[in-house]
Fold each of these.
Amino acid sequence: MDFRFYEIWREPEYISKLVDGIFTSVWLTVLAAVLGFSLSILLAVLRRSSKYRFLSWIAAIYIELVRNTPLIVQLFFVAFGLPMLFGYRWPFEASALLALSLNFSAYYAEIVRAGLDNIDNGQVDAYKALALNRLSAFFLIVIPQAIAKVYPSLVSQFVFLFLTTGIISELGIEELTWSGRFIADRTFRDFEVFLTLTLIYVLLALAFKTLFHFGGKRMFPWVDAR
């Protein structure tokens, strides 16, 4: 085969599109992960609640609904369905961010719930001995230990969901996959372009894993100490 990778690099516009696409993919994924993780803690707590059974059922239904429907269906529902229902119009970037955040939250909620389920009941006695109220104890004692227990799973889920974000290119959002399609349509070098995209996604995934690895050592030093 006649490989022509130089077709990608010869135009400054193509390089610019790739760089902008990487930036868009990364910031959307990171922000969606932060928002989704914040919501997942609430969902996990509600899911485990025996006092508020109705809210527990609502959380369970939401989690199962999101986890058992394709991301592209959720994306189109948020981008096109919700505006029809509520009469508003958001930029597609905002719709993609919301859809990704909701998707992250459901998957993270089950992981966080597993971490909470593995916290020893003796932790309750610990925060009582420290004279902490329940809310302070939850965020200062319980949550850090729960997250530490499931941290590798959270990282793996983040990387997996990052690799699926190329689907938001279906809305015309100029992220990494969209940039590759833009270049391929103009150079007719699909193989070279998507091989390049594959390499970029692999490098970004490895970069995320490395950052989370060292971040985990800083956040949860007691895990290595055991």
Amino acid sequence: MSLIKNNFLVLVSLLVSLNMLSQSMTNDQTLDNDYLSSKTTPVFKGYKNTMGSIYANKEFQIGSVYKYGRLVASNVALRYNVQAEEIELKANTSTSATVANVIKADQNISVRILNDDFVYLISPDKNQKAGYFMVISQGAELTVYKKIIKNFVEGKESANSYSRDVPDTFKEKEQLYIVSSSGGLTKLPKGKAKREKLFAPMANQMSTYIENNNLNLRREKDFNQALDYFNAL
């Protein structure tokens, strides 16, 4: 009887463990899917007779999704709808799906599309709604983001037979933003002197580095090089 009782207890213990594991897996799966909103959107191909695109890249590209810094989806097809401030998702780039999911607009959710990281932030610019910013450089003292902006410019019909129609166009421009260790999100100043002040905690080292490398801080490439060096100090 003792042996039968022991076997029964082992069986009950095993069943309880399996049930707990099943619940844990179900909860994890629920959490993993929590990055998707309830919204879906048609896989839009673009406006006819219009130059440019409402997307950062009109083609879906391979990427990953993170929530609280934890990977929750990988090898999925993503694209950034700049006009709607939405990240669209399909299972993969080869699917011919006509509908895509939309990732939740949440500051705790970020995405990587190819080698570009996007985070959802609240813009300090009253004329700029909250949306996705590309991470250019991230450091303990200074982080730089790039905001992609798409402006619609209405086309014009030609006035005579000697000129051509000008099509509707989505013109793209970019604005850089910074976050310092002591402040919030602000536009990156354009002037050389103002940009140099951002490196004030390491002014001597940065001045020498900028001079030795002949960097023009008004140029984005040069500023980013100086920023990487600053964040590494």
